[in-house]
Amino acid sequence: MSLQFLAxxxxxxxxxxLGAVGLTLTYSILRFSNFTHGDFISWGAxxxxxIVGGIAGVIAPAGRFMPFxxxxxxxxAGLLAMALTGLLALLLDSALFKPLRRTGHGIVMVIASxxxxxxxxxxxxxxxxxxxxxxxxxxxxxxxxxxxxRVTPDQMAMMGLALVVVIAMHLLLTRTHIGRSMRAVSExxxxxxxxxxDVAAVIRATWLIGGALACVSGIMLGITVQIRPQMGFDLLLxxxxxxxxxxxxxxxxxILGGLIVGIAEAxxxxxxxxxxxxxxxxxxxxxxxxxxxxxxxxxxxx
Amino acid sequence: xxxxxxxxxxxxxxxxxxxLPIVKGASIxxxxxxxVVVLGPNGAGKSTLIKxxxxxxxxxxGHIALNGEAITHRPAHLMVRLGLAFVPxxxxxxxxxxxxxxxxxAGHVAPAAERTSRIxxxxxxxxxxANRRRLAAGRLSGGQRQMLAVARALMIEPSVLMLDEPSxxxxxxxxxxxxxxxxxxxxxxxxxxxxxxxxxxxxxIADRAYIxxxxxxxHEGSAAALAADPDIAAHYLGxxxxxxxxxxxxx
Amino acid sequence: xxxxxGYGAFFLVNALIFGVICLGLNLQWGxxxxxxxxxxxxxxxxxxxxxxxxxxxxxxxxxGFDWPILxxxxxxxxxxxxxxxxxxxxxxxxxxxxxxxxxxGIAVTIQVVALNATGLTGGPFGIAFIPRPFxxxxxxxxxxxxxxxxxxxxxxLGLFLLLxxxxxxxxxxxxxxxxxxxxxxxxxxxxxxxxRLQAFALGGAIMGLAGAMQAHFIGFIxxxxxxxxxxxxxxxxxxxxxxxxxxxxxxxxxxxxxxWSLSSLAVGSFVAPAFQARAAALQIVAxxxxxxxxxxxxxxxxxxxxxxxxxxxxxxxxxxxxx
Lengths: 302, 251, 323
Description:
The structure holds three protein chains of three kinds.
Chain A: H1 4-30, H2 37-58, H3 72-103, H4 106-128, E1 143-146, E2 149-151, H5 153-175, H6 177-187, H7 189-194, H8 199-224, H9 231-246, H10 251-271, H11 277-291
Antiparallel strand pairs in A: 1-2
Helix pairs in contact in A: 1-5, 1-6, 1-8, 1-9, 1-10, 2-3, 2-4, 2-8, 2-9, 3-4, 3-8, 5-6, 5-8, 6-8, 9-10, 9-11, 10-11
Chain B: E1 5-14, E2 23-31, E3 35-39, H1 46-53, E4 59-66, E5 69-70, H2 76-82, E6 84-87, H3 99-107, H4 115-125, H5 127-130, H6 142-154, E7 160-164, H7 172-187, E8 191-195, H8 199-205, E9 208-213, E10 216-222, H9 223-228, H10 230-237
Parallel strand pairs in B: 3-8, 3-9, 6-7, 7-8
Antiparallel strand pairs in B: 1-2, 1-4, 4-5, 9-10
Helix pairs in contact in B: 3-4, 3-6
Chain C: H1 2-31, H2 39-54, H3 69-91, H4 96-116, H5 118-121, H6 141-168, H7 170-180, H8 182-187, H9 192-218, H10 228-241, H11 246-270, H12 276-297, H13 311-322
Helix pairs in contact in C: 1-6, 1-9, 1-10, 1-11, 2-3, 2-4, 2-9, 3-9, 6-7, 7-9, 7-13, 10-11, 11-12
GO molecular function (chain A): L-isoleucine transmembrane transporter activity; L-leucine transmembrane transporter activity; L-phenylalanine transmembrane transporter activity; L-valine transmembrane transporter activity
Membrane topology (chain A): Multi-pass membrane protein
Subcellular location (chain A): Cell membrane
């Protein structure tokens, strides 16, 4: 038996976990499951791609950081795209979710997000067609790590990036006022107002951060697989499963949930067949809801 | 009036839904350094009045001023910056956050240089909390939670500290402790406005009291005079004479 | 002219089948407040179940039992309703969002199974030679379409009348009471979750029936018919028609399907073939934006619910008092 599936699963899991962190944050603060989160992932990837293209068009194409497939333009573009994806989320909130928040019905926001998700995806198809795109055509040579595991340099870089982002999120939530305010609003918005927290500002910050995190997931997926308008939407079910498995609102829970979903998917690919991969998340989702609906680290759901 | 009021509410009408006021024209004023209590039967609109002052319930008529500045219709989170602190009746702490984080959140309105010293001052005032600062607030006992909620409110060094039924759900012994602490806090110069069902405990520490019924002022006067009036005691306070029940009108 | 009448009948059959889906969705969401993002999944279960059971025997996949069409329809309802009941059992006691995620999950999973369980579903190529009602008339399309329109219309009308009766029955009142104020309904001693489970399963069965009707009318199914766009269409129809209202659900289905067909027709005839994929994408964007606008501007839909339903709780409380 090869342990390669573990490495593949960990990598996919880190990616899913990162996406789930954004989802769990927006869910616990805005109180609805946002179906557009997957499409923020796709938009993040395409925005990065467009900016990389713009940089290459204006300045002569830059080299890449060996042995990785990317160079500084991708890093600059990624940072810009994170801000832009955050702004996109903010824009969608003020155009769609904010008016609906005022009228009250939480679940109507889910319908709205489902419709917006389709529109965002179709808009990407309109702008970029549904043909897959790539950040780089450079061939990556997988490095053997022992035990029969091989990993590409890009994958290692992305794992490092995921780790940095998660630690940054942890510090943000525990050490900064905006982070603590986000936790406060997620626990009790009415009390948050009493304590002097501007809930509207916290909601804006949540969309910005959630969008930026989605963009990072999109870049990770774009670098290691490919870029398609459907890429984020296809990831949505694993994201939901990871967020619920970890417990809504828990950053580390979302990461752990992501890793579990990723490894379970990789194991299914190994033993059941790649074609049923996307059913794994569903099975896990149902299992969690039946056995422990508040998830591994959830506080009080159910 | 001998002292200029810190907090003034005139002819306030407020309620959760338009056209359905719960407070129907109540007026109160609180002087600097006073403890004022609002009493009244269940459904009288006491809690709604204090929430309307805190900016949590829409005000449809009337005028509210803090230190002479009009604050009617200000959103709740801005009230805090003006020095109006409010302790809700239930769910008044962030259970998933540590005690220290609860205080840090509230202290953010203070100048950066003072935040740490204010937290230490609170731990000095509430020694029970000091040795648990890293504990999740949800693991505190009922009395300790109430203390944390008060400490959290005091973090902003408020002009007025407002409390909605601080005795709710506490044992008689804890009620005594909480009110003793409020009396101690007043000695440091904090003005206090509280809404209570437990008339006896509240009148014991209050300077003045208002009695609300059906959303309007019914009686007002010094705490001692109201407690001594047998008619009022029997009708509104559930005290019913010297050997009457300890508790307020209804749970 | 004859062509136009024929097309009109063809269009109406499709629109009414969507109407049946919307009636199911209206029972779940409009009447009971249960959110289903997996409409396409339940429609697919119905379509595949009936197709597998009624097709003639085939060498390359399981199934082909050659059952009569009516038996296929019933099986479709049973299976889709059963799937809905299972989902409901797992999630109805939890908060509403979990139902949304789970139904979304089942739609994705059904899609995966349809695409990959080749031995059962025919895989990406789907199932062909599904028996069509009035197949004997297929030589004259206008007669064939008209006969099918009569059949579909009769089924839709029957279902509509049944659901209207249900809406007015004590059962329907309990459902709306649950939707309006769950705590109040529960306090009257109604077993909230059991009522919801029944409504959700029944709604799923109706969607399954619609799937089977569509499969038999077209005669051919493939996994691509059951993508999330189908769920989106059903929701758009219900929202345009106004949820909580069976008549609105049907009118919404016809109106939205007309707009959808017309804009597809326009894209097909006026846009150069090279740009058609992009124009189709833009069409979806436009409908998505329109849906969002309706949600914000007219949350009760273009037609809206007739009765004021929040009285139901009081009415029931009154009854309970006189018991």
